[in-house]
């Protein structure tokens, strides 16, 4: 998806960029000395402040530079060329008699990001970054440029796999996205607004988020990591890493009223990416098993109707005709 978008009140948009385009206060009461009776002052225990526990003593110090230095060379700039059709009519009659414009094809460029995942030159990016492209160029952080070969795509998860022939590549190690905790610090690395090698920080705001951005794709799978690390057009396909410098997600989309970052970004967890990439390498397509049922979330209404004690899980809506379950 390229960034010539019309945004509604709140749009969930892909983040691909177009080229060219305590202090405390003590309160006291003032009284007259004549009205004060002598009272025994309360005894204050001799307590050492060093023995008073603090609620933050177990917090982990935040240090980002090591992770950033380790991973920045492992994120690349992905530049694509594609053909864009202008609005018009392909009917010569309308064009001639009514002076209406004909459809024209114009070469266009777009950009995004990618993550190097192997010394052999395999690079993960988003499918929407390279979709419908006629050529793909990968620019490393050291400014070396390579023509990339498209190995395979998976629109259902918005993941694509590229390969370049290059040496001395920096590989970002794979982390465990399942072990991410809400509130954990993460870093986003990419090329927003064509600004190469940009790093932003935030926390994991939510996990397993479904934002229905891929609902038009057959078999779409959404389980996004939500973060408040700044992600903007051009960040798509870039790395979401933890403070250990491990890849935990591929930045994919933002929630925005304007098309730019306003607080929420979404990344495909690396647990999904690993499965997709492994299949694309081996088979050229993603191998999936179908359970043969249609499900929906258990809502308060469903829980009440079914007399459920908890509002969680999924509800089986139907069994797919012709599936192994029937």
What is the strand and helix layout of this fold?
Layout: E1 11-14, E2 17-18, H1 65-71, E3 75-85, H2 92-97, E4 105-116, E5 122-126, H3 127-130, E6 133-139, E7 145-147, E8 149-154, E9 159-163, E10 185-190, E11 198-209, E12 224-227, E13 239-242, E14 247-256, E15 264-269, H4 270-283, E16 293-297, H5 300-305, E17 314-319
Antiparallel strand pairs: 1-14, 2-4, 3-4, 3-6, 4-5, 5-9, 6-7, 8-9, 10-11, 10-13, 11-12, 12-15, 13-14, 14-15, 16-17
Structural features, described:
There is one protein chain. This protein is mainly beta. The protein is 11% helix and 33% strand. The protein has five helices and 17 strands. It has helices at residues 65-71, 92-97, 127-130, 270-283, 300-305, and strands at residues 11-14, 17-18, 75-85, 105-116, 122-126, 133-139, 145-147, 149-154, 159-163, 185-190, 198-209, 224-227, 239-242, 247-256, 264-269, 293-297, 314-319. Strands 2, 3, 4, 5, 6, 7, 8 and 9 form an eight-stranded antiparallel sheet that branches. It is globular, with a radius of gyration of 27 Å. Mean pLDDT is 81; it is low at 1-9, 20-39 and 41-58.
